[in-house]
Amino acid sequence: MDSRNVRILIIEDSLTQALRLQDSLEKHRYETQIANNGKAGLVLLKEKVFTLVISDIIMPEMDGYELCRQIKIDEQLKDIPVILLTSLSDPQDVIEALECGADNFVTKPYNEKFLISRIQNILVNRELRFNGMSEMGIEIVFAGKKHFITSSRMQIIDLLFSTYENAIQKNYELEQVNRELIMTQRELEQKNIELAKLNEQKNYFLGMAAHDLRNPMGAIFNTSELLIEEDLGPLNEEQKEMIAAVKSASEFMLNLVNDFLDIAHIESGKLTLNQKLEDVTRLLEKNVLFNKHFAMKKHITLDFHYDNSNTFPLIPLDASKFQQVMNNLISNAIKYTHSGGVVQVFIEKKEGQIVISVKDNGQGIPENEIHDLFAPFQRTSVESTAGEKSTGLGLAIVKKIVNAHRGEIWVESQVGKGSTFYISLPFSDTEVSISSPKKSVKKNTASKEQYRPNALKSSGILLVEDNITSRKVALKMLEKKGFHVDIAVNGQEAVEKLKVKNYGLVLMDLHMPEMNGFDAMKMIRNPASSILNHQIPVIAMTATSTDMNRSQDEIINAGMNDFLLKPLHRQQLFEKIKKYLVPPEENDLYTNIADLPDEKIFDPNILFSQVEEDKSLYHDILRRYQSKVPKYIDRLHAAIVQKDNEFIIKIMNTIKEDSEAVGAIIITQLIDRMAPLLQAEAFDQLAMYTYTLHDALDRINFWVNQKIQTIE
After folding, report:
1. Residue 609 exposed, middle or buried by CB count within 10 Å (0-12, 13-18, 19+)
2. pTM reported for the whole predicted model
3. In sequence order, which residues have a C-beta less than 8 Å from that of residue 254 and are 6 or more positions away?
4. What is the pLDDT of residues 36-87, one digit of tens each?
5. Which of 50, 340, 403, 502: CA 20 to 30 A from 674?
6. CB under 8 Å, gap of 24 or more: what pairs does 267-275 form?
């Protein structure tokens, strides 16, 4: 049939849908007219002649089913084919269509090509339906209800075929969608691979950035530290203030770089733990002791409390990561507590968990800010009490580390009263239990480790570092402490030096040109090489956090004894060196100082009787002695290095006279021991005595400070 002779009535309440359908039909030269509901459509059908009706089902006033019934019971309209637009989501739709006498279905949303094909088929079969029409009806039961079907057999067959065709069409569309989904999934997989590569490249870049940023920032920090301690000469107050600002800013930048790299490393899923069975109480004691210095600067009391009668099991921990967690929590408590405040650390056992808490009586955290406290780059509205800076990453890192230990962290806080941070770590009943230390942290501060003499091997240290700035700063710190230091700028040069000289310790950078630290270690530990001492202690140094996280085991497996993260901090550097140069049990001076009772170290009555028990004058003289003698010892060491015998005698006499006056017995005795060494010009041994003098003075200072606090 020529489409130009076909007039189609579109009955659709949605104007947008109606116009879209009209456009599709008119492109194929069908004449169309639109009605917006069933009633309006019936009026048009009675006024004009239409070849075909296409109707939506759900419409106001009269739906599509009722419209179809009205058409089929009208003698003048009943032969007009009716196509219903439906979602065909329920078998009941087919029954309803059969009941109302519909001729065909088209599912929504429809395919234009499929719709035109359906119209053409209906028009071709129209004559067949005229010849084979039957008026007989049939009663059926479907879904528990009776339905009377009056459609002719041809109508029923046509309708069922249309249903089948719709199903085929829908299946084809689903297959098409499925193919598109598969293609999309493959594209997503490819994108994920590309993103993973980009993430690896980002991490590599960050690692290189750490190496490039840490070295210059570390140099600024360490140089400012040397300056502010007046190791390079005296400063006036204005200079000290400016250098302190430089030191503070560089320290903040270093912390920011470290925290950023830590969180990036953790978020990439590469957080690895080097867990061993650890004594938590011992680790906490060390951390509290480490932070006491910072607490004292702000006049804050820092204490560690535990039940002496309780036993705590050894639990699997990455000790360095655990100390990072505790250092963050304790330093934060100090940071946000006012001068004169109190910070307390507690440990207890609760239902298979070791619970550690850090409590302060500081400013507290607003309740509405606690929820996001452990998210990266989150800062509260609370300001630090002394202007300390924060990167906003510390607690996010803490939470990740605690969770990696299968632990939990949470906080309770009240504005104006303080905060308490809690950590719970699981333990097993099968894990070994140990008794808690019987002495408190306060008592342990006078342990032998505090004033162990730093007697060093005269063979000295080999510093292997390619970065000229880092090398200069490290050399200055080591020489200021009295170390004999040789330099190598790469692994190959270090190997050559170790073939001709027997050093006491090697400080080895990992990333260097020509030969890196790992390759150098293979040569050092190889028994077939001509290295003089294959067992020499080696401390690895790196500015790349990925080295520390990736390969703590790798560094040790390579034969290195220990590692340090650059920039080198003076205290950490010297603590590491003490572990490997001259063990205490091999040093007679250690026995003479560390094991001596207080009365063999210092006699307070000597000075007290001379000032006629004037406490104010007594304290003033002691403070001046504590201030002057460390500088005298440093000058003595410099004179020994320069082999200036005349100045050595002069400064030794000055130290001895001042020490005798205040009752510093051990200092006087050490100076007496040095006299025959000077006559023999045993300058190496004299240099070692200067370190012992410093440590002996540390014990005296500790005793004096304790006594003065007690008297005051």
Report:
1. exposed
2. 0.44
3. 214, 217, 218, 221, 567
4. 999 999 999 999 999 999 999 889 889 899 999 999 899 899 889 999 887 6
5. 502
6. 268/199, 268/203, 270/203, 270/546, 270/549, 270/550, 271/400, 271/401, 271/404, 271/549, 272/549, 272/550, 273/318, 273/321, 273/404, 273/405, 274/318, 274/320, 274/552, 274/553, 275/316, 275/317, 275/318, 275/405
